[in-house]
């Protein structure tokens, strides 16, 4: 898959908390039109707030791109109040290198999660990222080897292979328990939010991470849009759960 730089979201403080073990998800061959893993919306964080934020995300086709029915379910929204958000429960996830490609080619995980990169290929790989604030280099991995990386900075992390420059996977690190997947119709609802100013972030693997300033309570439905600038890919989407 051709490398397309991903826009980095504004960084948030890096709270440290040990990840909770989550059953690894085995990913087989690429299936461009299918989502690998679905997860339920997280429960609202315990608080006295009872505000809701309802909205709809639309996906528009960029130049040379075609939209596929049902791909809105790969989208993620999360809200970060100006006063700060409770962090979601972290987990453990796998990304595989197979047939000189990353599988899945896009992923969303809660902040603090551990991602294990497993080489299932018959050749060596060198997984790395130069994303500001999230850079790392796991060194060369021989067939069968694996290496872990804890992702503690919010936003999209672009991961590549130093051996095979065409390889790319994007990992969205979700820093807030006020998060949800988007429905098949593009609609979403976030509950239990505090009043006041904040920012709504929205993302689909085919485009960049977007952000919109919000003041709660909001009147009516919020509309946001992502432009598809790359083909659809196999994804794994998990926004975590309330702590």
Automatic annotation (TrEMBL):
Entry-linked InterPro entries: Cupredoxin (IPR008972)
SUPFAM superfamilies in alphabetical order: Cupredoxins
Listed Low complexity bias regions: 1-11
Superkingdom of this protein's organism: Bacteria
Region (Disordered): 1-25
Protein name, entry field: Methylamine utilization protein
Species per Swiss-Prot/TrEMBL record: Dyella ginsengisoli
